[in-house]
Amino acid sequence: MKLLAALKFVVELLTQLVTLGEEGLGRIMERMNYIREITGRVHLPTIQEFTQFLDQAVGHIVDCDADPTIPSDYNWTIERHIKSGKVRLERRGDTLYVDGKKVILHLVKQQTRNGVILGHELCKELEKGKLVLLSANLLDYLLEHPELIPDTWKGKAVFFWGTVYRGSDGSLNVRYLGWDDGGWSWDYYWLDYGWYSNRPAAVLAS
User: Which domain of life does the UniProt lineage start with (predicted)?
Assistant: First the structure.
């Protein structure tokens, strides 16, 4: 009976985990240690085993309704943020999917064939279309889970136009993912500048 009660307790915790975050995971592991004690020799997962199981069971869930991160040491505000609820990320082969839809790297016509377009004009082009623009919430999650980032993104600055920031001087900018010195990192680019073919937007395929 103790074992059955313990398993039921773990299942209930799993169903709530997605919304608990890292702090909640810590509380769960404390309770699981308690379950170890009351169930004696029953094997319960370590933190690493538990995390791997969760990744397989519920996938990588990102809350895109949450306020996007404003990087520390930057006096920015959020100019625009597109909310899209809780979404699930997965990588199949060398392709990233959001809720089962393929993420593609989109260029407007002016960016192709070594062309260039000013950031403000590009912003208008992207907004007037039917594209689903990915936000900085996804960018930050991908940085925490770089194994999800396709290798084909290397050599490009992949922009997440779903979130636009305003600097203290009033200028607008968008953050991007880039591969540098053997690892992924983020940076930003001002809308006042030109955007070339190596600066695609991360969007969902229609």
Answer: Bacteria
The pLDDT-based confidence of 53 (bands split at 50, 70, 90) is low
145-154 LR contacts (CB < 8 Å, sep 24+): 145/60, 145/89, 146/183, 146/184, 147/91, 148/60, 148/89, 148/90, 148/91, 148/96, 149/91, 149/96, 149/177, 149/184, 150/91, 150/94, 150/95, 150/96, 151/94, 152/94, 153/105, 153/177, 153/179, 154/179
3-class SS at 17?
helix
- Pick from 177, 176, 140, 165: which is nearest to 66 by CA? 140
Most confident among 12-16, 124-128, 196-200 (mean pLDDT): 196-200
User: Pick from 163, 160, 164, 139: which is nearest to 149 by CA?
Assistant: 139
Exposed/middle/buried for 123, CB within 10 Å: 0-12, 13-18, 19+? buried
Pair of tokens at residue 125: 């082009």
How confident is residue 14, by pLDDT bands cut at 50, 70 and 90? low
Contact in structure between 108 and 131 (CB atoms under 8 Å): no
Residue 205 sits at φ, ψ, to 5 deg, of -65, 145
